[in-house]
């Protein structure tokens, strides 16, 4: 995930990370900009809490965007490292259109994220493009943290959202996949914070879901499924 700090507000970071977690594990989280500029100071408060690496890029020449060049160079270095299956480019700048196309030519899955002002060529160059305003409007407004850890309402809401995204036509989804996606959204989530030792009884205690199990192919392990009641 490569973020252009010059073209994206820090207010989008939480819904942005939640959205991209649907596609897999984020190997690289980098954000580019001239961190000596006061305009980027709001970003500094969220980088550490979300484990995002800031990349310093001075504006050497007036009228030239050195940040874009640094992002493009790093993207190609990562591409040739063969450590990733896809890229998320977060910017509203059309300068990344050719980069997105080039990454796709190399077999990469490219997700673009930007504001509604993003030019159409960049949007078209991505496999999938997400408007940040839409993500922000969908963000849960309730506090997700309390004295004991995570708010139970935030967890319940997240579980419903994930089920809507991954369930089959009958509403069923793998409990293990549900748990993995929940952990990607809330890395601090632990059922022990709510008085349970396993995920299944915790899910049942919420009163909004039903769970059933089937024997695995080996027969000695149960595969659990869950859906909304």
* Proportion in helices: 25-40%
The quaternary state of the protein chains shown equals single chain
Order of strands across the main sheet: 3-2-1-4-5-6
> Poorly predicted ranges (pLDDT <50, ≥5 residues)?
140-149
> Proportion of β residues?
15-25%
Structural class: alpha/beta
Note down, in words, how this protein is organized.
This protein is an alpha/beta fold and 229 residues long. Helices cover 38% and strands 20% of the residues. It has nine helices and eleven strands. The chain has helices spanning 13-20, 41-47, 66-81, 97-105, 120-125, 132-138, 152-166, 175-185, 199-205, and strands at 2-4, 30-33, 53-56, 86-90, 109-114, 128-131, 145-146, 149-150, 173-174, 209-215, 222-228. It has a six-stranded parallel sheet with strand order 3-2-1-4-5-6. A three-stranded antiparallel sheet has the order 9-11-10.
Strand and helix map with partners:
Blueprint: E1 2-4, H1 13-20, E2 30-33, H2 41-47, E3 53-56, H3 66-81, E4 86-90, H4 97-105, E5 109-114, H5 120-125, E6 128-131, H6 132-138, E7 145-146, E8 149-150, H7 152-166, E9 173-174, H8 175-185, H9 199-205, E10 209-215, E11 222-228
Parallel strand pairs: 1-2, 1-4, 2-3, 4-5, 5-6
Antiparallel strand pairs: 7-8, 9-11, 10-11
Key phrases:
229 residues; alpha/beta; six-stranded parallel β-sheet; 9 helices; 11 strands; elongated
What's this, in brief?
With 229 residues, the chain is an alpha/beta fold. Helices cover 38% and strands 20% of the residues.
């Amino acid at each position: 995930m490569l973020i252009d700090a010059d073209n994206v507000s820090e207010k989008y970071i939480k819904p942005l990370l939640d959205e991209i977690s649907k596609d897999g594990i984020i190997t690289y989280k980098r954000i580019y900009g001239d961190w000596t500029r006061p305009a980027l100071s709001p970003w500094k408060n969220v980088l550490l809490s979300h484990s995002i690496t800031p990349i310093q890029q001075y504006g050497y020449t007036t009228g030239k965007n050195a940040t874009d060049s640094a992002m493009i160079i790093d993207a190609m270095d990562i591409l040739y490292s063969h450590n990733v299956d896809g890229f998320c480019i977060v910017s509203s700048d059309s300068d990344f259109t050719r980069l997105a196309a080039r990454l796709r030519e190399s077999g990469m899955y490219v997700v673009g994220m930007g504001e509604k002002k993003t030019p159409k060529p960049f949007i078209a160059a991505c496999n999938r493009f997400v408007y940040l305003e839409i993500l922000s409007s969908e963000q849960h407004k309730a506090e997700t943290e309390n004295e004991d850890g995570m708010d139970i309402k935030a967890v319940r809401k997240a579980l419903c959202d994930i089920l809507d995204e991954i369930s089959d036509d009958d509403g069923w989804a793998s409990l293990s996949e549900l748990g993995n996606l929940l952990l990607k959204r809330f890395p601090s989530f632990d059922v022990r914070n709510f008085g349970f030792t396993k995920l299944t009884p915790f899910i049942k205690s919420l009163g909004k879901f039903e769970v059933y199990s089937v024997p695995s192919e080996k027969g000695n392990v149960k595969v659990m499924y869950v859906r909304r009641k």
